[in-house]
Every structure is written in C-alpha cells, then in structure tokens.
Amino acid sequence: MEREYPDKTVLIIDDDAMNLHVAEMLLKKELGVKTELSKGGLDGIMCLQEHEDIHLVLLDIQMPVVDGLRTLELIRKHEEWDHIPVIFLTASEDQETMEQAERLGAAGYIKKPFLPQELVAQVKRAL
Q: Which of 10, 54, 101, 117 has a CA between 20 and 30 Å from the CA of residue 82?
C-alpha cells in the first residue's frame, strides 16, 4: 500500500489533455494527492495565484505561447512560490534545455512518455 498524501496538492501544467488526465489519475490513485490542472504556462501561473496550497508543480517544457522554462522563470520570481518544487515532464532530449532547467531550480525531470512508477517515485521524493 502506497503512502498517501491527502493534504498535498499537485499542479499539473501540460498542453496535452491526455497527459493531464493520465498524470492526474495516477497521482490520485497511487498517492491520494489533490490535483489542479492547467493547459498552459499562463493558466498555471493564474492557478498558483488562486490556490495558496500548491505543494508541487509538474510542468511540461514544450508548450505554445509560454513554454515550461519561461513558466518556471515566472514562478521563481514570486517570493511566495519560489520554494515550490517543480518537476519537468519532457519529451526533449536537448542537453542545453535540461541544463537551463537545472539553473532555474527544477527539482528534476521525467521523460515523456513517462513510466507510472517513475512519476510516482519522483512526486513522492519531492513531497
């Protein structure tokens, strides 16, 4: 039986509805977390403004309009959010992008398509 986190909320930001749905279902089932879903970087920032109880952000890198790296920059500029761990979900193999994510303070990254056990393990570690 997995340890549950019913008092934790994970914000998932991804422009792909299927990725949002799969990650949400998996995290709720395996860890018992609450989730908030956003379909893009600006929507994610608005969600952070509306919810004071976000404990972790799962963030896609490749999104239209505002990509994940820019979204993380915006998150880190706000004093009330700069402590929130951010884990990137990415299909990118680009080493420069991964280095930039580290410089911005990403807590880790998960390759897409992600393995359920890897997602659960990384989220547990971050929470």
A: 117
Summarised one tens digit per residue, pLDDT across range 75-127 is: 999 999 999 999 999 887 788 988 998 999 999 989 989 999 999 999 999 99
d(CA 46, CA 4): 27
Q: Is the dihedral of CA 124, 114, 108, 17 positive or negative?
A: negative
Query: Residue 36 is encoded by which pair of tokens?
Result: 């908030």
Write a three-state SS string for the chain.
Answer: CCCCCCCCEEEEECCCHHHHHHHHHHHHHHHCCEEEEECCHHHHHHHHHHCCCCCEEEEECCCCCCCHHHHHHHHHCCCCCCCCCEEEEECCCCHHHHHHHHHCCCCEEEECCCCHHHHHHHHHHHC
